Sequence to fold (524 residues):
Amino acid sequence: MTIALARPPLARLLRTTRGWLPIAAWAAVAVAFAVTARSGGSVRGADHVLVGGYGGLVLPLLSYAIVGALFGARSLSASIAPLVALGALPARAAAASVLLAMATTALAGLVTAAVVALVAHGSADPPLAGDALESAYAGGLGGAAYAAWFALGASFGRRGGGRALLLVADWLLGSTGSAAALLTPRAHLRNLLGGPAPMDFTQRASAAWLVAIAVACAVLSIRRAHVR
Amino acid sequence: MIAIESVAARRRPLALANLSVEWGAGLHAVLGGYADGGPLLMALVAGLVPVRAGRIRVLGDPPTDAKVRRQVAFVPLDASLPDALRVHEVMSTAAAIRNEPAGDAVRRLESLGVEALAARSVRTLSRDEVRAVALAEALTSAQVRVLLVEEPLVSLDPRAAARLGEALRRRAREGCAVVVTTASMRDATELADDCVILRGGMLAGPPSPVEVVAGQAGGDAPLRIVTREGRALVAALARDASVAAVAGEDGSVLVRGGDVVTLARAVGRAIVETGADVSEMHVERQAAGGVRGGTW
Fold:
């Protein structure tokens, strides 16, 4: 049944231009950042692009686009309403959509981070294979956390306007060194990608926080899913 | 099958208060406008709105139970289907959700005469077609035992509208509880085995015969009273101020006035006054160009 519940959001993502075009565009931007760093001869190109353009801009917006496409640019409740009308439990339909969003965004984050690390790799960056693997891991984990973050946002507002609100909150709070930054995916993703650590957290602690943010946001968004 | 006991619920701007009703297998109608809370009652039975007070059981369990939900189909006025799928994919997705074999989508859609929509994308369907597909899914699912339909004959593909009444009655005969909400007395009385009136969120009981007759009328439709004592009845009605025109013809009396309820009451008074033996009273269907057969 879970596969049946995941089918409509997946069809929204794959069958509509509005679904896949922003994703392709943000992936292209990530590659463009990497190519620019490579052609500029940056010795720490991968580090520079992953912490800057990729982690700060591309991955959040890529995740935002994927969640928007899967939910049909509506609130989570509105996007599952047709499935509920066909007999599905709201919580199950919401869980299928949120988990699909997390899996899709994790995959997109994993692939794009690895590609960026490979293309932008400079002479002073860590060894290529290990760096690509670590970047893929950070991109995947960060993508999943962002998907759950935006899914929670999409459970607020008649048209899921909370998604944009959480994008701005992540932007404003995530880059600060305050304790509030700990609640955003951005602060921990930057740490995992080699950027500054929030409150001197280790990378392992940031990874655990990203998992906690992903689980908490996913559970909250599913609990909030009800059909009006 | 559906037991509602002293239930109160609210979903702005609608509210229901102290509502108690039981429905078994059969075709039941709830008569009332949108503001009276019909859509909210349907959403409540479908488990989409929480109960504030009282108790509701559908098939013996709370309507939010997963096992119950699979057996309940709710087709609201603004029905929606998964938008990026094709119609035949919607049917197979619904079958997977309801835990039943998918079956042939074309054959299922044939039940309402909309098999031509099978290959269409849901995005390309009109609102009327979406409702027809949603109804076809609900009507042909072997799992569905409770079918809730809001305004069954409104905003519906004409192919489906012609077959819907019989399809709903067939499901009711097969043992389903079919509940329709409508603001049309005519739809309610023509479709359903029984009918309750919902007014301002409260049940007002079944409609009176006068309300049934009035509800079947459109505008200032005349009433025909079948009686052998037409002459006395015509004389009594002619004296009534609320009657605009009356005529006797061939074993019946045709009477017209502004408001059908007032008219029916006037006829009642005339019957009591004359002691006439009336075998039937109904709203006269108006033919094009005026009232059929009347001399006014």
Notes: The two ends of chain A are 23 Å apart (CA to CA). Chain A touches chain B at residues 1, 3-5, 7-8, 11-12, 15-16, 72, 81-90, 92, 226-228 (CB under 8 Å). The mean pLDDT of chain A is 92. DSSP finds nine helices and no strands in chain A.
